[in-house]
Recover the amino acids of this structure.
C-alpha cells in the first residue's frame, strides 16, 4: 500500500527540521510514544538504527528505525521494521511563502499475516494515523501543544 500526505507548517524549514530531529520531542507529537534507543551508526546519519517503543491501544509495539537517506533540509527517508509491518517513509520539506514549510510524506507499507488483512480491509486507518502524527507535529512545532495533555 502506498499513499502520500502533506501539511503546511507555519515555521521556517530549519526550525521544523530541528524540532523533528530531536527524539526528545517525539512524545509531544507521536501519541503512544514510550521510548527511543540508539542502536548503531552515527546518530542522525545514513544507516543509523534506533529502537522505538509505542503503546497503541492495548498493544506494545517495538520497531527498528533505519535512516536510509538523510539529505536534510530537503529530504529524509526512513524505514520502520516491526512485527508483520514494514514501512518506508520518504519525507520532503519545501520552503513556501511566509516562512512556512510544506512537509510531504510518501509512505509505503508492506504487511504480513494478520496485519496484511487489516491493511487490506482498513487502508484508511494507516493514512489517518500518518496524517494525525503530521497534524500533531504541526500543533507542537507551531504552538507547543503536546499530545501528552490530551
Amino acid at each position: 500500500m502506498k499513499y502520500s500526505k502533506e501539511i503546511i507548517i507555519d515555521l521556517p524549514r530549519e526550525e521544523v527540521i530541528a524540532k523533528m530531529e530531536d527524539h526528545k520531542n517525539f512524545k509531544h507529537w507521536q501519541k503512544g510514544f514510550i521510548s527511543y534507543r540508539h542502536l548503531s551508526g552515527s546518530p542522525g546519519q545514513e544507516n543509523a538504527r534506533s529502537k522505538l517503543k509505542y503503546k497503541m491501544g492495548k498493544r506494545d509495539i517495538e520497531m527498528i528505525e533505519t535512516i536510509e537517506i538523510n539529505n536534510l533540509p530537503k529530504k529524509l527517508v526512513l524505514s520502520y521494521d516491526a512485527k508483520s509491518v514494514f514501512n518506508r517513509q520518504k519525507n520532503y520539506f519545501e520552503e513556501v511563502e511566509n516562512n512556512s514549510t510544506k512537509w510531504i510524506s510518501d509512505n509505503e507499507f508492506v504487511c504480513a499475516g494478520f496485519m496484511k488483512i487489516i491493511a487490506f480491509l482498513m487502508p484508511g486507518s494507516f493514512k489517518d494515523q500518518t496524517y494525525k502524527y503530521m497534524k500533531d507535529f504541526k500543533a507542537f512545532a507551531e504552538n507547543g501543544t503536546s499530545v501528552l495533555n490530551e
Q: What stands out?
A: The chain is about 30% helix and 45% strand.
